[in-house]
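Every protein is a chain of amino acids, and every chain bends into a shape of its own. The fold becomes a row of whole numbers, each drawn from a learned catalogue of backbone shapes. The protein below has been through that process, and both of its lines are reproduced in full.
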Amino acid sequence: MTLLLASVSGAEEAGLARANGADVIDLKDASQGALGAVAPDVLRATVAAVGGRRPVSTVTGNLPMDPDVIAAAVESAAQAGVDYVKVGLFPGPRRQECIRALSSLARKTKIIGVMFADGGADQALVPIMAESGFAGSMLDTAEKSTGRLLDHIDIAALRDFVGLCREHGLMAGLAGSLEAPDVPRLLLLEPDVLGFRGALCVAHDRTSRIDPESIRIIRELIPFDPRSAASEDPGVMKVDDRLLAVMGYSAEPSKDDAATDHIFVRDFVLLARVGAYAREREKPQNVCFNVDVKVRRADHSVEDMRDVFSYDVITDGITIIVTQEHIAFLETLAERVAMSVLAHPRAVSVMVRVEKLDLGSGGVGVEIVRERPADVAKIHHLYPAAAGQP
């Protein structure tokens, strides 16, 4: 499950974010860049206003990679009573030294090391953060005008980052001009935190004010995490019946078998390590995927991403599968793709066709059709919090 981190400018926005379901309140001055620090009085006032009802994080600012400067900033932020302190790990010869210099502070303060996908992110730093006692690591973008996180790093590399954090006992966070269509794609990776600012603001301007409806859209795309106080807060907006119906949750199974649409991916070609021959283990080959998914139809016209089954979820799922390991048989590959699609509550059935393209003239491959088992058609196990399960 995944927590929703909302970056806010102060106490007033923190109240709006909490009321609309944010799991973590993150203090920053968006006008000063990705890690612009708020004034100390704003930080203290916001911590007091949140009153422990949510974890509060803050950033130390866009600081040089000087161990003494970084340590002083972390200690100052921690004294304000925040739960997490986010430290920017910018490129520089002393970056590792800065991480290690925080080891004593990390014993009493939860520190998150922030790397930048558009500026010197280095996964080799993750084990060093773990050795130094950090609580987690986050990938973000430094220059918000140059694109989203997924414009700078692909889904397979993000999967590797999340997996590496898990391997070393760190929380894994993803941020960087994320938008609503990115949410279902990144949920495939099961990060601990997804962070947002611009997508929560009026006109998606990260320097503008927080917009409650924009928060609701993001909140309703991320199932409530049982770890979060937001899931138990009586004052928080909860997922409404309309959204549950769109996602495929209902008290009764659909009585209208025709109430479905088809989402398809055509001629999606990737290099994949697949095949039973020894020569096929030596190098990847071009493989073509065609996928047709029958999905439950919404009972109203499409308004925003809450009403959509994204084809990106299909293509990202395929990418994640083919970059994990060598797969001996096309049948196994097709089954894994089908299973990844049917992991989504709206999916009713799926057709998967997989073809090898590098074997000469003609085409060879396999086509399978799979349906969701009837015993999981009502409520899908991936989202127990939305279903009211423990």
